[in-house]
Amino acid sequence: MRFLSRRLVMPNDLNFAGSLFGGRILEWIDEEAYIFAACQLDHKSLVTKHIGAIAFETSAYQGDVVEFGLEVKAVGVTSITVTCVVRNKQTKQTICVADDIVFVHIDPETRTPQPHGKTKPQLDATPIVAP
To answer: I want to staple 65 with a disulfide (CB 3.0 to 4.6 A). Which of 32, 34, 89, 99 is the partner?
Structure first.
């Protein structure tokens, strides 16, 4: 799993207890997973179909830098399934794991599922280039 993206926890990201709001981290996960899936498939017409198990393991606080690790779990004809791990950049402690995030490639005009033309072996063989 490669950790390629980071975010700084800001005051507006906190809940009433002073830790990172769960809804905010889920928003970030959906966005980061979409970017990763769209780059893997080289298509931007993707929609989130499903997010499976989500496990919150530790908290993050204002000023923490969190990083997102993503990997392809499975590839279907019209879909891609990814896993996302969010961890504290400094301590490497896992904050949250979101498993089975499924995106479906759709036709931008008809909004119906369309084959994306990629396979898992193809994606596994493609190197991820860090910025």
So the answer is: 89
Tens-digit pLDDT profile for residues 105-115: 999 899 999 99
Assess contact for 79 and 105: CB atoms under 8 A.
yes
100 CB contacts (<8 Å, ≥6 apart)? 50, 51, 52, 53, 73, 81, 83
pLDDT level of residue 129 (50, 70, 90 thresholds) = low
**What is the span of the domain harbouring residue 97?**
2-125
The residues that bridge with 55 in the sheet, in sequence order, are 97
- Rounded to whole angstroms, the maximal C-alpha distance in the chain is 46
Q: Which pTM value belongs to this model?
A: 0.90
pLDDT digit string (tens) for 79-100? Answer: 999 999 999 999 999 999 999 9
User: Which residues face 68 on adjacent strands?
Assistant: 5, 86
Looking up residue 105, the CATH number of its domain turns out to be 3.10.129.10
Q: Is residue 131 part of a domain?
A: no
CA-nearest of 81, 84, 57, 58 to 70 is: 84
Rounded distance between C-alpha atoms, residue 78 and residue 115, angstroms = 4
- What are the structure tokens assigned to 68, written together? 């997102």
